[in-house]
Amino acid sequence: MPFQCQPYKRLYPPAEDITLTASGMTIHNPGTVPAWPKFTLYGSGTITLITYSGAVVLSGIGNGIVLDWEAQECTSLDGGQLLNDKVDGDPQYLPPGGSVISWTGTVARLVVTPNWRYL
After folding, report:
1. Would residue 88 count as lying in a domain?
2. pLDDT along the chain (119 residues), means of 10
3. 4 domain residue, yes or no
4. Looking at the domain assignment, is residue 1 inside a domain?
5. What's residue 85's pLDDT?
6. Mind giving me the DSSP string for the chain?
């Protein structure tokens, strides 16, 4: 039987989702290493999402998109359609401490599944 070792611990039970309703709100990462969150963005058109680790441009968004930065996959809200071709930019992470998340474009809300990690 092969030995498997993963260097990070995760919160259990997982942290609750965080809903952002305005651009420029701050999220606090209580972990000791960067987190690769999942962003569920409800919006349309062309949107620029800005976090600590840079900016991502989302083009031609219908009613929303799920950006799973840990899996490096972007899908439709129902998960049925791959939308990686709608995303221009690098995967986003949240470092330990506070991070401002902002956007431009038409966004109703952004739901963050944090995936906090500890070393």
Report:
1. yes
2. 73 88 96 95 97 95 94 91 95 95 97 93
3. no
4. no
5. 95
6. ------S-EE-SSPPPPEEE-STTEEEEE-SSS-B--EEEEEEEEEEEEEETTEEEEEEEESS-EEEETTTTEEE-TTS-SB-GGGEESPPP-B-SEEEEEEEEEEEEEEEEE---EE-
pLDDT for the residue numbered 41:
97
Domain membership of residue 11 (yes or no) is no
Domain membership of residue 63 as a residue range: 16-118
Residue 84: name the closest of 97, 66, 70 by CA.
66
Number of domains the chain contains = 1
- pTM for the complete prediction? 0.89
- Cα separation, 111 vs 119, whole angstroms: 25
Residue 79: alpha-carbon gap to chain centroid = 15
CATH number, position 28: 2.60.120.860
